[in-house]
Amino acid sequence: MAAGVLLYVTVASLAASGSLVCGMRSFSIDYKNNCFLKDGKPFQYISGSIHYSRIPRDYWKDRLLKMYMTGLNAIQVYVPWNFHETAEGVPNFTGGRDLEYFLHLANQTGLLVILRPGPYICAEWEMGGLPAWLLQKPNIILRTADTDYIQAVSNWLTVLLPRMKPWLYINGGNIISVQVENEYGSYFACDYNYMRHLRTLFRWFLGEETVLFTTDGNTDREMTCGTLEGLYATIDFGTENNVTDAFGRQRRFEPSGPLVNSEFYTGWLDHWGDQHAVVDSRKVSRVLDEMLAMGASVNMYMFEGGTNFGYWNGADHDTRFRSVVTSYDYDAPLSEAGDPTEKLFAIRDVIKQVRHCRPLRHIGDFNTQTHDPCFSLQFRDVPSGPMPPATPKFAYGLLQMKRVGNISSLLDTLCPAGPLESQYPLTFEKVKQYYGYMLYRTTLPRDLSWPTPLLSPLNGVHDRAYVSINGVFQGLLERDNALVINITGHQGDTVDILVENMGRVNFGSKINDYKGLVSSLILGKDILTDWKIYPLNIDGVISEGWPQSDSHQFDHPHNQPTEGPVFYTGTLKPNGIAWDTFLKLNGWTKVVLSKAIYLIEMSVLKISLFYQGQVWINGINLGRYWPSRGPQQTLYVPGPLLSATKPNNITVLELEGAPAHLWVLFIDRPLLSGPD
């Protein structure tokens, strides 16, 4: 590899390529002096991860400006394939999926971009960013040179990468480097032919001059399987790792060039049932300071996490299936709602010290001091102005809900095309219902006078199943946790099983994560057969105004508890304010509303409590709530989803059961730890 190769692009070639600006621009790796070169000068980036897919478009600029004002000179961005191509062959780059507009805002703000286009991204995102329609090929081997997978990947990158080429820094844009795949060394396949194919595609579409890199975890096995000649090898690690040891591992696989931590963990994710994860600000600032003093380029993962709106949360499966919560707050420097935290200001103080051209530290074999005591690194000063304030929050207070009806009674609305019929259950993927819910219906084959076990012997409920007989809720089955319930009934009784997809596995060897009833259910000694399968278009009908458009169907506010999957609706009256708020659906005894303290007695509210389900506001799917399992207790409601002048429609699908006199509460702060 040539040392200090500078990649000059002339004014003429920039004009010919339709670049965004004119002039000589370059970004490369100086292997002799162990640094990046930007426009021929040594360069160190201080970056933060931000996911445009987890933040409302209206707030993109606000978040980017706060990152810039912290002192970052770059951002790191994932491109979730399944977010842009939910249906095969139909890419979508509009509205909240307008990646190029996001890049434009970053460029306008003064931030460079480290692009991570996958095709696999992990990110605690549904199926790691891979589209679920890939699973229509039952024998497909994801993230390998499997013919079906490679063809789909090639088709996608043929769409995406030409869109990105004008945004490369060397072409006048702000993308300085591009990652190939993501943490591939963590995957079981270790398929170098697959990685070579990706390298060829990226080079073909982005050019030989583009800095391509890989990112892998801090083990020899991960670095061995994740790296490839021609792709610069970087590493990721957090506050609990020894910095010198970690960069020493990078050096064994990449003997020269800049030290890079592509994912320095400022926090961590939450699963349902976990304690809320936090990482101490002092540890983050101390380790960041140590890395920057070594001349390393660092990306902080996350800088703002955002929200897993809709069904976009991922899941892990190590010893058991664990779904990721709706909030992706991540204990990041910017909160889920984009508010600056104590951690952000601690990081800003560290960056200010580095920007004052402090001499680099001599640590082990990583001395990169080759020009002068300050290494001549290109830095801009941390902006001296105030940090943009937190977005305003408002506590809209209590809202009483009305019962719409249980799912079994609403199938004509939710599945107007009617059911599919099959002797045995079909998966979500088989019927092209990739997200949300499906209802499976059959009948009891014989009288059950005594409680009889309904069993999923092969752990085939993916992921939760809500069982009713003749519309009466019997209980639930849950993947890895509850594989059997007892039921009674008479021959010919209707058996309804509503199955919830709680997010596909996004990491490890089990990402071929089929949903629904993936194997047969056994009732006593009988295999249940002759199914009617209803793919439920819940999001579609809600986005078109249901159930408010059918208000004559509403029950009056009910005074009897209900069990099983039931829809509720309510209307938040406009008050001239459309600010961020947080929706609390479980019981409470004391809640802070703005500056007043309201004491709400449980006896008055008749134990107002939701258990687990989904919420929509003005047709937008906020995500899953599950306060009884926790840790997350509130759902973030961005202000742009609300109207200050028109009624705001709230729809709740409660899956387990709801009491009489049901209320929800809008408060002005998040509650991410619980259950309380």
From TrEMBL:
One of its GO terms (biological process) is carbohydrate metabolic process. InterPro entries: B-gal_1-like, BetaGal1-like_ABD1, BetaGal_gal-bd, Galactose-bd-like_sf, GH, Gly_Hdrlase_35_cat, Glycoside_Hdrlase_35. Keywords: Glycoprotein, Glycosidase, Hydrolase, Signal. It comes from the Eukaryota. Belongs to the glycosyl hydrolase 35 family. This is Uncharacterized protein. Residues 425-537 form the Beta-galactosidase 1-like first all-beta domain. The lineage of its organism: Eukaryota, Metazoa, Chordata, Craniata, Vertebrata. Residues 36-353 form the Glycoside hydrolase 35 catalytic domain. The active site is at E183 (proton donor), E263 (nucleophile). The keyword Disulfide bond does not apply. Residues 604-645 form the Beta-galactosidase galactose-binding domain. Residues 1-17 form the signal peptide. GO terms for molecular function: beta-galactosidase activity.
